[in-house]
């Protein structure tokens, strides 16, 4: 039988059976197969800001060009809808290539399957990114995603949880 002192502040213990795991054993079982540290909410937030700035710039350029070509100034609703559509496409495209958007590459984090720790399949990427619509509420401020992420040890937002993905820190960084 394991004493409570063994669990305090310890990392994942290799070879511990489910029966010898102390009260906080659920957390240890959830994290024991993870080969890279879970990305912090701070890392994820900075990567998200970088990505959203890129998407915003591209959206505004497309909106301006389209307005000039059609001789019509489209409203904020059109810009908002374009931003939503382009952001979902941006995240799906980049994460389906190697699990990293430009922001994630800069920060050194990557999306992986929570089960295999490998590149998620396209279905998982689509699920996690379609659910950005919910995670980004209200007003595209990602408040729901942030609250859900800080409430679990894997820092999974709703999209990650339902797609069975996690975001981990990796060694490589841009710049």
How many domains, as an integer?
1
Number of strands: 2
Task: Strand order, main sheet: write it out.
Answer: 1-2
Which sheet architecture does the biggest sheet show? 2 strands, antiparallel
Query: What's the overall geometry?
Result: elongated
Proportion of strand residues: 5-15%
Tally of alpha and pi helices: 9
H and E string: HHHHHEHHHHE
What percent of residues adopt helix (DSSP H or I)? 55-70%
**Averaged pLDDT, please?**
81
Structural class from helices and strands?
Answer: mainly alpha
Could you explain how this protein is built, in words?
The model is unreliable at 1-30 (pLDDT under 50). The longest helix has 30 residues, at 41-70. Helix 4 (76-98) runs antiparallel to helix 6 (122-130). This protein has helices at 4-7, 25-31, 41-70, 76-98, 102-107, 122-130, 132-135, 143-150, 158-163, and strands spanning 109-113, 165-169. Helix content is 55%, strand content 6%. A two-stranded antiparallel sheet has the order 1-2.
